[in-house]
Amino acid sequence: MEKNPAAPREPGHEVGDAHGLLLAYLDYYRAVVLAKVDGLSEEELRTSRLPSGWAPVELVWHLAHVERRWLRWGFLGEAVEEPWSDWLHGPDGEKQRWAVPEGVSTPEVLETFRRQVADSRTITADAAPDARAAIGGRFASAGEAPALGWILFHLLQEYARHAGHLDVVRELADGTRGE
């Protein structure tokens, strides 16, 4: 079976340094997520096919918030408004599932994701992987503050896991299989 020429491609074998490879794979999985939702109807983007109840557009919204939580609020230590606003909360405040707020359109979700990814690229462009996250924001003490390399690996595993989720959802939606 021939590969789709428009499908995202893994980083080339010439990328040898670990930090560069990590950033390249993050970009690869960011592109995979967008490719997985591309071509789905608005109905499919907002329909859950899983018992947990999340829809593809909600997963993209979640990933935009994940980037913001780990890099702006976490690594930079910036104050961010409602860092967990990608979650629908139950009556006791427990996180139940991802949710896009009422009135936020799919194009707005995708633009939020793209903007946050661009911000994340700027944040990580010149930062050393062993740089520690700022105190404040997400982390209250030096003992909690992870290195940027750890944060980026965490993001990478989250993207890889969620890209797999989208593989399943996309196949259930229209038969399109992941590569």
From TrEMBL:
UniProt-listed InterPro entries: DinB/YfiT-like, MST-like
A Pfam family annotated for this UniProt entry: MST
Domain of life: Bacteria
Protein name as annotated: DinB family protein
